């Protein structure tokens, strides 16, 4: 298939290019390299990254509608995989400028993607990366897409309600609403992936990802593994009872492929929860420490993330990918050892000054 | 009280300045005059407008954070009335540029308002204008704020779900989510007003409002009254069975005052549905024609507004303002005659070319 990957140079974009290319798909990538800009200003550089990405042909932001529409018009993709968003909750809460930047890139960029599709390739399938974090921690099962409700004796079907914990999460919620509207009213088709917290250093097709471990761009398990290798305490926010959804980056590849090979109908907006396991942060930190040969310490920090709920019910569903045949790479000693081994190879480059959280929601 | 009115020169901003000023409040207004810019480009000029607005001191957009924050810092408002948004559904659906402009002004502008409050006046009360249109046409009662739901034997309380019918409506939905988050996590306080379709030519304090009758900025009853006076058919979209919420512009003044005099707690986000009556568009058009002495015709046009629902259940609640003592100005022959009289005075200026809808959602 003809695939356009927006955000093709990132942690997920690069291995997706490699994965789909090896399977015979035609790939065109674009990226504005904005994360790379902010790495230098804020977050710290990745511990390692791929040598280069031959799939990235175009360098501009999705907020640049004319370039975006020109690209859609000339390439005429059948599938658009949209990773081109600011990816960090702490970044979005740092101050007005970063909050604005996140909302602008994500909401206005995705709005442009919808208009560019409508004008140039209304039959294309938009696969959009969202996050399980958009749901917050509701007291009911987290469904995939819609919820049937009853109120005062009458029934309705609503988009599953979400409750963002940062302006980053909110930007993704807004995107989902805009995409659902474009499907409903314009007849576009889209799969919205609510992805769990992704981890991993490599895939079977890409031997080195762009790997962050800092407070801003590092995801939690990647951070824990780096911390244990560096010999510093693992930083658990709050009591660590927060349950979160996780998946190996190899499963991201397969999920995106499954969505692509099983497209929605024209006019259909569908939501898949894209994760394979649930852990509490405390359990995850303890697992990392127990598997790492030299062991390590776990430190409980005041939770900087606003009103994040640290205990209670958490039951997200992920039947849709299971039904499409996903065979998960569950977190194992082998997977953790693969991560330790790679991080140890770059151990001398770890900058401890970017590990502790500095951005507080309050 | 010290009141800051964002969007102080508009159809609602100007009479709100007059109304609150006459009641002894201190008023500071700002407006970027963007609607005036687009009037000339797109929508047609208002049939009449106030001579000037002595309450508007500052001219910039809410997307200009530094000026906005400076204003909040120097004025230190107790109440912020936020009307400063692009107000038109058709405008937002015209093309990418107008859609982008709407989303940028509204979502990023309101995000800036929240940051400016947090930095300069976190105790101030934000009164934000939304619209009943954000709800779409759900099959259940439309509550004010939250909804208690039950799913698979468990209970939760969610923000009342909304389903926008245009990017304009979506921009207001996004605003509401961002404001709710700022209240929940930062402890700001806000009243979100979901206003029905407002109509009227004057208030008791302002003898001439900025009155639009074109497809883009004119609200439906103002348009119907202008059409009947002009002797052209009243343009009902679709079959006209769509039920909508309405209120007289005098009631907008009183509702905003009631919200202001009864502020929420710190950290509280609350929603009031701000309307007084429900009509179907067909019934409303027939009422206008029946009250106008010379009568008139009603024309049913293909509905340009996407999937707008034209029949069925519609039961929005408006108890909160009733409980605060609102005494509505219900639509009457007297109110309609006041409108006819004023429009007739400016009849020769009616530009018939801006009346028919040109923007189609599809």
Compact description:
By secondary structure, chain A is an alpha/beta fold. Chain A has helices at residues 13-22, 34-43, 65-75, 89-93, 96-120, 167-186, 220-230, 249-261, 281-291, 319-323, 333-345; strands at 2-6, 26-30, 56-58, 79-82, 125-131, 146-151, 154-159, 189-195, 197-199, 234-237, 243-248, 269-274, 277-280, 298-301. Chain A is built from eleven helices and 14 strands.
Q: Catalogue the unreliable spans of chain A.
A: none
User: How would you name the oligomeric state of the polypeptide chains in this document?
Assistant: homodimer
How many strands appear in the DSSP assignment of chain A? 14
The main β sheet of chain A shows up as: 7 strands, parallel
How is the CATH topology of chain A named? Rossmann fold
Given the helix and strand composition of chain A, which structural class is it?
alpha/beta
Mean residue pLDDT of chain A = 96
Coarse shape of chain A: globular
Number of domains of chain A: 1
CATH class placement of chain A: Alpha Beta
In what range is the share of β-strand residues of chain A? 15-25%
Helix content of chain A: 25-40%
CATH superfamily of chain A: NAD(P)-binding Rossmann-like Domain
CATH architecture of chain A, by name, is 3-Layer(aba) Sandwich
The ordered string of helix (H) and strand (E) elements of chain A is EHEHEHEHHEEEHEEHEEHEEHEHH
Termini separation of chain A: 46 Å
- The total count of helices of chain A amounts to 11
Q: Which pair has the most extensive contact? A: A-B, 50 and 50 residues
Strand order of the largest sheet of chain A: 3-2-1-4-5-8-12
């Amino acid at each position: 298939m003809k695939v356009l990957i927006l955000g093709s140079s990132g942690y997920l974009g690069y291995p997706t290019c490699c994965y789909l290319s090896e399977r015979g798909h035609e790939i065109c990538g674009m990226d504005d390299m904005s994360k790379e800009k902010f790495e230098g200003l804020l977050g710290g550089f990745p511990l390692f990254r791929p040598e280069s990405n031959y799939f990235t042909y175009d360098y501009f932001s999705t907020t640049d509608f004319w370039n975006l529409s020109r690209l859609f018009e000339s390439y005429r993709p059948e599938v658009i995989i949209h990773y081109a968003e600011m990816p960090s909750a702490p970044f979005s809460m740092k101050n007005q400028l970063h909050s604005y930047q996140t909302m602008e890139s994500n909401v206005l960029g995705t709005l442009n993607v919808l208009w560019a599709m409508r004008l140039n390739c209304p039959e294309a399938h938009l696969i959009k990366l969202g996050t399980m974090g958009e749901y917050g921690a509701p007291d009911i099962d987290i469904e995939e897409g819609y919820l049937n409700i009853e109120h005062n004796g009458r029934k309705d079907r609503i988009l599953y309600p979400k409750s963002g914990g940062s302006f980053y999460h909110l930007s993704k919620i807004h995107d989902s609403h805009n995409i659902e509207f474009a499907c409903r009213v314009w007849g576009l088709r889209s799969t919205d992936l609510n992805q769990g917290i992704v981890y991993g250093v490599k895939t079977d097709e890409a031997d080195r990802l762009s790997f962050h471990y800092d407070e801003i761009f590092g995801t939690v398990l990647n951070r824990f593994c780096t911390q244990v290798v560096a010999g510093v305490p693992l930083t658990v926010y709050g009591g660590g009872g927060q349950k979160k959804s996780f998946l190996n980056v190899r499963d991201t590849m397969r999920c995106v492929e499954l969505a692509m090979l099983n497209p929605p109908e024209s006019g259909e907006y569908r939501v898949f929860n894209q994760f394979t396991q649930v852990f509490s942060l405390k359990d995850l930190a303890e697992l990392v420490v127990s598997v790492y040969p030299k062991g390590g310490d776990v430190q409980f920090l005041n939770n900087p993330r606003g009103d994040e709920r640290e205990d209670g019910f958490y039951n997200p569903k992920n039947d849709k990918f299971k039904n499409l045949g996903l065979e998960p790479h569950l977190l194992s000693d082998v997977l953790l050892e693969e991560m330790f081994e790679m991080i140890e190879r770059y151990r001398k480059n770890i900058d401890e000054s970017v590990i502790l959280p500095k951005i507080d929601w309050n």
